[in-house]
From TrEMBL:
SUPFAM superfamilies: GST C-terminal domain-like. Residues 32-152 form the Mitochondrial outer membrane transport complex Sam37/metaxin N-terminal domain. Keywords: Membrane, Mitochondrion, Mitochondrion outer membrane, Protein transport, Transmembrane, Transmembrane helix, Transport. Gene3D superfamilies: 1.20.1050.10. This is Metaxin. It comes from Adineta ricciae (Rotifer). The chain crosses the membrane at residues 279-301.
Amino acid sequence: MSSPITTESKLAFTSLRIWPAYGALPSFDPECLCVLAHLAFSRLNVHIKSNLSRFIFAKERLPLLLGDNDKISLAVGYEAIVDHCRKSHIDIDEQSSVDVADLLALNALIKSTFVPAVLDTFWLDDTYRSSIINVYARPLGGFPLAFIYGKQITEKIKDQFSITYGDKNFEQTRKTIFEKAKKTIDHLTFVLGKKPFLFGASPTSVDAYVFGYLAPLIHGPASNSGLARYASSRQNLRDFVDRILTVYLGDLARDSSSSESVSTSVPAMPKEDRLRDKIAVIGVGILTMCAYAYFSGLIRIEINQVE
């Protein structure tokens, strides 16, 4: 699938690779949603590609900005892509009358309090982690890549939390993260008020950042979590998310919903995929049992040379 995001400004890149759509979302990944919103706010002409091979999904970090006919990696991840846009003299914050200090302060607050709580809900909460992994599993090809990917992300977030908050009483740390996120949601509700965007009539990079983590929380598989319910109870935040989805990303969402290569929901796994996954599970089980039996001495392999 290839979908254009508006057509005014242009940069020296040919495409953006993202994780696929989910329900009403043009992508189920927070960072990808941040980038999509930022590019849409910037009115950039870029083609979106989400019908990638499973090898690409497993190998590359997404979102990935490519140039020179998709052969050169320009930037990987939300912050790097936004920085690339700014270096190309396309900066939506420069076009607004908002004080840069206010933008930086709110962005830092979101990054330090709200984002960790969303990541905790997605990857550390036992109730929702399997659901999140299942969403990522489809483009990854199912077991075992999805399991490996999910475990890597979970361990990475745990390490980040340990460095930031320390190793003592990890469960209490998670509760603290949740309480700080609730206060940040209250603050966002107050700052947004009845305005279309956080700082007025025009969107900024902070709006893209907030949207990227709010949208999959409200409309994703963890929408019944405590954090999602708390955010959804703020009507102006729900309207904020839905407004961006409809006004700025509506064409992209319709494009993805009408494309055969990208699904807007988690489809039922085809029979051949289910059979492949069953064979993979059985194969891994057999290899594990054989390795255990060999190293425990239950079986012995002798090789005799015949002269």
